Amino acid sequence: MAYDDGVDTIITCDNGISAIDQIQYAKDLGLTVIVTDHHDVPFIEEDGVRTFLSSQADAIINPKQIECEYKFKSICGAGVAFKLMEALYEEIGMDKEECYKLIEFVAIATVCDVVDLIDENRIFVKNGLEMLNNSKNIGINALKKACGLEDKKITVYHLGFVIGPCLNASGRLDSAKKGLELLLMEDDEEAEKLAQEIVDLNDARKNMTKEGVDRAINIIDSTDINNDKILVVYIPDIHESLAGIVAGRVKEKYNKPTIILIKSEEGVKGSARSIEEYNEFEGLLACKELLDKFGGHPMAVGLSLQEDKVDELRKALNNKCELTDEDLTRKIMIDSSLPLEYLNLHLIEELNVLEPFGKGNSKPVFGVRDAKITKAILLGKDKNVLKLKLLTNNNITIDAMIFNDLENFESKIIEKYGNEELDNLYNKSNNNISMDFTFYPSINEWNGNKSIQIVVNGIR
């Protein structure tokens, strides 16, 4: 352990606020402990009165503390650690702007931790993206190359769904040190080898995640769990690091708060992911007598308990929850109706000024009714991307891209128009198909040419 290795100081990042006993042990050994965290402060509640707990750490830096006067409370864990670095630079007489070179890494962490992209987080990400698109970091550039992003503009999407997951995969399936090692590399050739290894790990993680999601769905659909408003699914042998990802995917499918539990050395542990209408942390707090420990946010919680308490927890959560059918109805909020013929490059470029988009600063959602579909083309090596040709009211053709939910699209076409019309759509024959879409407009660039397309996120 650290003490045996001669370590005299521990600085945490994104954890430690709830480690009361562990920090006390470290202090008993004579270690200096500095906590940097952004998670909710733990408390005990008696007769409706909450008493917040604090460890014996030498310093605790967490904007969620009641006594903390820092104005912005939604900074992510890496952002809090960065703030400590900024102060240390000044303390030792270095220009704090020197540490601003690290903002590209803070940007990755801010997006991947799904905190609100407003205020200071927006500044981190906006500036970090500029740095990442011109990065001098050998490891980042090697990872971009391995992911096929070498000549592409890096966006929030790439941080959240490509670069971030790759860096996370090393910690999930191997050692997090590999991700760190990549970012510290100084040799291009070695960096490219390690980057490819990390991408391969992420591909393995994707396959394991799909298997875990499929197993969870099978359990839910084949048991009375399907009738629950809060889904508690126990899959003993799923990989521990994937519980949160699987919970998120299952939550998206059913639009219900979801807890995925796995078997661990000390019993059962798992991750919870919630919907906006349900505070998962408060829900588990109401069942705390069944848990060994838990902690996190209203939307994401980690927990552990004994195996014989799993069914009891499932029943207790569902008995205590007050979610209505309306709460569990999937909703798409549309910012504005936008006829396709109104789209132009200038409008889309103006919308891009609002970026970066993310939690707390969502990409605008537009809607169009009765859009005429003239053709459908399946793209990608797995034929999992659908390009539609839409005809506007002034007889201009615009491409519409659907990147998921293809089965839903086809089933809706068959339900209203029949199999023959769906075949006509794919075979470029005449048809009478039209649909309502929610979408976001974008600019597609190919061989130096720009064209307008829409990215579909909802169909009816």
What does this structure look like?
Helix 3 crosses helix 6 and helix 6 (156-173) packs across helix 8 (188-221). The protein starts with 8 loop residues before the first strand and ends with a strand. Strand 1 (9-11), helix 1 and strand 2 (32-36) form a beta-alpha-beta unit. The chain contains 14 helices and 16 strands. The relative contact order is 0.06. The mean pLDDT is 92. It is α/β, with parallel strands linked by helices and 460 residues long. It has helices at residues 20-28, 77-91, 103-112, 119-132, 138-146, 156-173, 176-183, 188-221, 243-254, 280-285, 310-320, 345-352, 406-417, 419-426, and strands at 9-11, 32-36, 43-46, 49-52, 59-61, 231-234, 258-264, 267-273, 293-296, 300-305, 336-337, 366-379, 385-391, 397-402, 434-446, 449-459. Strands 6-7-8-10-9 form a 5-stranded mixed β-sheet, sandwiched between helices. Strands 12-13-14-16-15 form a 5-stranded mixed β-barrel.
Count of β-strands: 16
Q: How do the strands line up in the largest sheet? A: 6-7-8-10-9
The SSE string, one letter per element, is: EHEEEEHHHHHHHEHEEHEEHEHEEEHHEE
Q: Per DSSP, what share of the residues sits in E-state strands of 2 or more residues?
A: 15-25%
Round the Cα radius of gyration to an integer and report it.
25 Å
Q: What is the tally of helical segments?
A: 14
Task: Return residue spans where pLDDT drops below 50 for at least 5 consecutive residues.
Answer: none
Helix content: 25-40%
Helix/strand/pairing category = alpha/beta
Describe the largest sheet.
Answer: 5 strands, mixed
Specify the overall morphology: globular
Could you tell me how far the N terminus lies from the C terminus, measured between alpha carbons in angstroms? 57 Å
Nearest-integer average pLDDT: 92
